[in-house]
Amino acid sequence: MEIDGQSNGATWRWSLLLSVLFLNICVPSLVLSYGVLWVHLVNLEVPLWLGFSTPTIFLLTYGFTQCWFREAADSWGGSVGYRVMAAIGLTVVVVSLVICAFIPLYLHPIIYGVLGGLGSSLISAQVDAVIFETYDSRIGIIRGICCTGQAVGQSLFPHIISALTNYYGYSFSFIVLGGIMLQAMPAVFLLKIDESIRKSTSYSRTADLYKSFTGFHNDCVDNYYTAELQLHDLSKKCWKSPSDDNLHREDDEVGENTEVVGTITPPPSPEERRRNIFGIDILPDIPEESEESEEDIEQRIPGKEMSNSQRRLSIAIKRLNTLGDNLDDYITKQTKRDSEDDSSGHDGKEYSELEVTYDNISPITDIHREKLFNSFSFRCQSTITNIKRRIWIPSYRMYRVRRRLLYVIYSINDTFTKPLTRSLSCWKFYPALLLSFAKLCLTAVSLMLLPMIAQQVRPNISMFETNFLMSLHGFTWICFLSSTPWLAQTPKRNFKYVAVIGLIVTTTACFVFAETNNHDTFAIGCVISGFGYGAVTSCCDTAIQDFVGARKWPKVHSTLETLSASLLALFVTGLSLVMGQEGGFNYSMFIMGIIMLAITIVWSILATIALYETKLRYIRPGRRWLL
């Protein structure tokens, strides 16, 4: 098969793999490690809700722009397009960090969240497009490597941010952090696809959708019993003579220097009815109609038969003669009428005075034209006409504005409105939305609250130990990602079971953090949370895609991102009202644990039903079966 050949012959492209890994280490750490910045921001007597809203705004901007950038990445792609757009995204991220060093603290959530989310979304869209174009046969392994890079960044950046803040101060540490992020620019320049390798139609980001709709293939020559039209090679078609046509002959018997002996079907004769490849009769050419019949032409030349070309020539000559006579008549009549008008109206002057109005301007000489254009009435009427034209007739600039406005409206309709109406009508969309919302909650809420909970433990945990425990969280995340080769070989229908296990573990971790009152309990919660977070982030997208189906996944993908980010914003707004109370961080983790428990129950029921429908329903005594 072609797919197997490309899968086995594809190279790993180590330079591109290292660049993708380095970008996943740096860029997502702006959200994963923001809890350390929040601790220093609170020490500056900034309200809690202000720092807590920054990663939410970041993810909200990311969710609303990712669907736009993902669709536009195909048109931006190419040998230069991916790198240019990724470089622009990285520039936006660096600019947002530099701006945060010179603006008031209450503006940090807007600049850090909006510009940082916009740039990260642009980089992520280009990286995903390059990955799908290059590593489509090993996409499971590459996704695991990307998650490993994020876990490494989540382990390293808390220490880097704490060191920068202690040495340069809170504000100026953003400048140095922007310089560190700028070091990822060489990795952006390595985002290049190999255009020499042309992939088939099934090798794309919609490969699952393509395989679902594929019914017939035109690649096999021996497949004579199909309902599709077989394509012919027009290089074997002889356009000069039908007798030399090799299109209907067998390929094995046609050669450059060999004579064709046998044919499948003989060439059609001119007497036979001709048909095209669709079975429709080809009608003969209809001769042009003439004004006089053939009998009249033959009567002019008795005893001599005229050919078709001669008849057509004679008819054309007759038509030209008739047209020439008519033109002579028209010219003669016009000349006589003009001469009569001139003789009757001529008074011996060089020019005649004419009454000229705005509706009928017909100057005869230059003097008339000069008098007309210099007149006050003409100037007034032209000014009024220009004013009316500017008011009532839109210019081309206004036309372009209206056209772009319509384009934006249609894009919003196609990107948000139509997918939203289709998704809300499907019941499978709601469990998928809950799982996507759980993933965002673990990213923007759980990781944010870890440093703040560590500061309230008695005795207090130092900032160095807090960073070490967050690195422990990332290390346990990497430990789960070591099972990526096994997950890559696992069928997609089994990813929902791994996602349920991850939800159970993360729910347990939330309740552990809610009851944390010492160092040991906090460390145990970090270890448990790392395993659960790794399971959820690794299997969330694949489990949702398998649950909603390959055909519906492209329709609900953008809606899942936008609605889950909107739900996250509402949830964080509610939690910000609770954090100001005593023990508000532990109580927030308790509320999050209840929500995670509800999502876990829903997906456990769905996984149990799927297990029964696929395995337990058809099991027989003494029969071996596997998941």
Automatic annotation (TrEMBL):
**Keywords on this record?**
Membrane, Transmembrane, Transmembrane helix
**Transmembrane segments in this chain: where?**
12-36, 48-69, 81-104, 110-132, 139-161, 167-191, 432-454, 466-488, 495-516, 522-544, 556-578, 590-612
Q: Name one GO molecular function term.
A: monocarboxylic acid transmembrane transporter activity
Q: Which InterPro entries match?
A: MFS_trans_sf, Proton-linked_MCT
Name the domain of life: Eukaryota
List the signal peptide residues. Answer: none
Which Gene3D superfamilies did the record assign? MFS general substrate transporter like domains (1.20.1250.20), Multidrug resistance protein D (1.20.1720.10)
Q: Where is this region: Disordered?
A: 289-308
Protein's name according to its UniProt entry: Uncharacterized protein
Q: Which organism is it from?
A: Parnassius mnemosyne (clouded apollo)
